[in-house]
TrEMBL record:
Residues 118-134 have a biased composition (Pro residues). This is Polymerase/histidinol phosphatase N-terminal domain-containing protein. The lineage of its organism: Bacteria, Bacillati, Actinomycetota, Actinomycetes, Streptosporangiales. Residues 153-218 form the Polymerase/histidinol phosphatase N-terminal domain. InterPro entries: PHP_dom (IPR004013), PHP_domain (IPR052018), Pol/His_phosphatase_N (IPR003141), Pol/histidinol_Pase-like (IPR016195). Residues 118-141 are annotated as: Disordered. One of its GO terms (molecular function) is 5'-3' DNA exonuclease activity. It comes from Planobispora longispora. Pfam families: PHP.
């Protein structure tokens, strides 16, 4: 079949007018699959890549890929397989970095009469499952409360479905190896990974929470839950309303982290999520108070969580650094309920000093000599397992150098 060709030249004015554009095309009636290839000068700028079908979202890979294939039975990670639909399709292009002189691009849309074979990278084999491990609460001697138990996990990680290097199953095994009870898989602007979560969770013996990192130039947010696709092209108030209506939870991610800090206009109090990824791997100097200050300015009663934002091993921050602790059930629904209830704490790692709000008490573990700080609390911890009457508001454990070691909502 003859390839369709589209060319153009994006300008800074184009980006200002709308950062995500659709280039339309129609497939021949007998096409059973198609491949899209994008070419431009990557040394000059960055274009993100995605796909919108006549009936809606079909995938997104951002700047991580320059081509994708959709077939009835398989698709490039980040994209949804299925029969090609009749009607007008769009190649989505995100104008992420456009130089002053503009950025020319070329698209080739290649229809296929029969679906291509699955490429070798998508047939990558599984590694052996990790050996069985005790739950984190058992390892650390944490009591249950009201039929719920403390779970250790990570609420921010990526796979090959966006810009990560591991498959869903490989990431699940790595998180289990780290001693985590749960992991949220939050690939950028796509939900194509959700179909793989149940099998990977069973294989690695870990709870996997469906997620999507809603990713824009002005900030990122995680949508937790099996919610379907959240349209990142809409304003944040629309995301928040959709997440709430579909029974999920939304967090504001790494709000003071470099060029992906939160810069969207302030959300109204009716849709503003109290859940904030206060502790992100990029908080390299934890005596720096900006993440705490931003969180407290965002809402009077924050629900603080953490995320490693794991992408690949060579970056040096594995899943669970930091670790989010949730008092809840060990299913995705139970984990979401724990976040909604504000039953969260964050530690530097699964085995790090820990501060839990456990009913009417604070339970403080492995924090001998650290300082407990809160709105009206100043106290030195003496001992490796301490129970204290809980006080209202966010609290933290610090070293004498003011380095944060644990947080408690």
């Amino acid at each position: 079949m003859r390839a369709l060709r589209r060319t153009g030249h994006w300008t800074v004015a184009d980006r200002a007018a709308g950062p995500v554009r659709g280039v339309p095309f129609e497939l021949p009636a007998d096409a059973r699959a198609f491949t899209v290839r994008l070419a431009y000068d990557r040394s000059a700028g960055v274009l993100d890549l995605g796909c919108l079908g006549p009936r809606g979202f079909r995938g997104w890979s951002g700047g991580a890929r320059s081509e994708y294939t959709l077939t009835p039975g398989w698709a490039t990670p980040g994209y949804l397989p299925g029969e090609p639909e009749p009607g007008v399709w769009h190649v989505l292009l995100g104008l992420y970095r456009i130089p002053p002189e503009g950025l020319p691009y070329r698209l080739r849309i290649i229809p296929h009469l029969s679906p291509p074979a699955v490429p070798p990278p998508l047939r990558r084999g599984l590694r052996p499952p990790p050996p069985p491990r005790e739950p984190a609460a058992t390892r650390r001697g944490l009591p249950s409360l009201g039929g719920l138990r403390w779970l250790a996990g990570d609420l921010h990680a990526h796979t090959v479905h966006s810009d990560g290097s591991l498959t869903v199953a490989e990431l699940a095994c790595l998180a289990a190896d780290r001693g985590l009870d749960f992991l949220a898989v939050t690939d950028h602007n796509t939900v194509s990974h959700h179909a793989e979560l149940p099998a990977a969770a069973a294989y690695a013996a870990i709870s996997l929470l469906p997620g999507q990192e809603i990713t824009t130039d002005l900030g990122h947010a995680n949508a937790f839950g099996d919610l379907g696709w959240i349209d990142f092209r809409e304003p944040p108030g629309v995301w928040a309303a959709a997440v709430r209506e579909r029974g999920g939870v939304m967090s504001i991610n790494h709000p003071v982290a470099a060029d992906c800090a939160w810069r969207h206009p302030t959300l109204g109090t009716d849709v503003r999520s109290p859940v904030v990824e206060t502790w992100h791997w990029s908080w390299l100097d934890r005596s720096w108070g900006a993440p705490l200050a931003w969180t407290q300015a965002w809402t009077a009663a924050p629900i603080m969580i953490g995320g490693s934002d794991y992408h690949r091993p060579e970056e040096g921050h594995p899943p669970g650094e930091p670790t989010t602790w949730i008092l809840g059930g060990d299913t995705p629904g139970g984990i979401l309920d724990g976040i909604r209830a504000g039953a969260t704490s964050v530690s530097a790692a699964p085995g790090g000093p820990l501060l839990l709000r456990h009913g009417d008490d604070f339970l403080v573990l492995d924090a001998d000599g650290l300082l407990l700080w809160g709105p009206d609390t100043r106290r030195v911890i003496v001992g490796d397992r301490v129970v204290l009457p809980a006080r209202p508001g966010p609290h933290r454990l610090e070293t004498f150098r003011n380095e944060v070691m644990a947080l408690c909502s």
